[in-house]
Design goal:
Layout: H1 2-10, H2 16-31, E1 43-52, E2 58-64, E3 69-71, E4 73-76, H3 83-95, E5 100-102, E6 109-115, E7 118-120, E8 123-125, E9 128-139, E10 152-159, H4 163-166, H5 173-190
Parallel strand pairs: 1-9
Antiparallel strand pairs: 1-4, 2-3, 2-10, 5-9, 6-9, 7-8
Helix pairs in contact: 1-2
Length: 192
């Protein structure tokens, strides 16, 4: 837990809101040693991926069955403290894509995401928070995609200029725009 808290505190936030969420995330971890597990029904750790194509013009997303919207890939830590491995595993499982490149060695965004009450696999899940870190990944848009039927109904490369019209989960749009702006800033600064 200390390693993640240290990484969070050292992480340079993009704006005041991300900074506030980063500090809330770190504070929660200091007081809740079970945050890596879903048994903490208030908040628990998740890890996501922002997966771009070669020229960063598209993002790989899944049509999520619970949220009825195009969504990034990611999942619960469920005790795994290697959040980079969680993000990559979930990206592969949810999209079927095998060859994914980690662009940055560590997470490039931090979020506290409210999750509304829903049913998952027939069980009621109450309102809670996802304490999330996001990794920047790259994949070949010509690789074969596969639906993960228990989680999504479609997988596709979406043009980042069309996210506003494609994302039904409207409260996620500002985050997706921030992620892509940060991805482009990284690309432009390192001439990828």
């Amino acid at each position: 837990m200390k390693e993640l808290i240290d990484k969070l505190l050292a992480y340079k936030s993009d704006n005041d809101f991300e900074e506030a969420e980063k500090l809330a995330f770190a504070n929660f971890l200091q007081k809740n040693d079970d945050a890596y597990y879903r048994t903490n029904t208030i908040a628990h750790i998740t890890s996501s991926s922002w997966i771009v194509n070669e020229d960063f013009s598209k993002v790989l997303m899944c049509y999520h069955t619970i949220y009825k919207s195009w969504s990034w890939t990611g999942g619960h830590a469920d005790g795994d403290k290697d959040l980079k491995a969680v993000a990559i595993r979930e990206a592969k499982e949810e999209t079927g894509i095998e060859n994914i490149e980690l662009i940055l060695p560590d997470f490039f965004d931090v979020e506290v995401i409210p999750v509304p009450a829903h049913y998952k696999r027939g069980f009621a899940v109450g309102n809670h928070l996802h304490l999330n870190v996001t990794y920047l990944l790259k994949a070949n848009e010509r690789d074969i995609l596969k639906v993960k039927e228990d989680e999504n109904t479609k997988v596709a490369w979406l043009d980042v200029n069309r996210l506003d019209e494609l994302i039904e989960e409207r409260d996620m749009l500002p985050l997706y725009h921030r992620l892509h702006r940060k991805a482009l800033a990284y690309k432009n600064s390192f001439k990828i």
